[in-house]
Amino acid sequence: MTEGTAGLWPSTFYQICEGRTAKYGTWVKFEVLFRQMFIPVDASIIALNKINKLKQNWDLNTYVAEFCMLVAVANVKESHVLVHLFNLGLKDDLLCAIHMMGDIPNDFNKYLAAVMKIDSNINQGNTTIASLTPIDTATTVPILDLRKGMTMQWM
Length: 155
What we know:
Blueprint: H1 4-18, H2 27-38, H3 43-53, H4 60-74, H5 79-88, H6 92-100, H7 108-123, H8 129-132, E1 143-145, E2 150-152
Antiparallel strand pairs: 1-2
Helix pairs in contact: 3-4, 5-7
């Protein structure tokens, strides 16, 4: 922590403290100054950082709820950006199935509905292309079921 912003911070802190009677103040004052320097105060930046770290470690509905809450705080509205950010934290088997669905909807709400349908089919054990494709046109290509490590037969 001797390079970049962290390296410059101590000298700035010492300069701030030199004009005071009690040179370094209390721990609480130090903590406030430290947080002002290193922790973003912009809620949208914090929310974007949380979105980038968000992972689907639970059911999809919980992931969607957390994602939508963070997106509202981050004020992200462009569908293609929402789709990209949403995909970052999805489980591998679901993400693989999404890529197999062919044309991915441009509208985030339609995309989300398609993902929810795919996830429902995966949870019910329906892992054929027809069941994973939310669009009526099913492809006749075998797919890999990542949970079982085996190829599933197409319809």
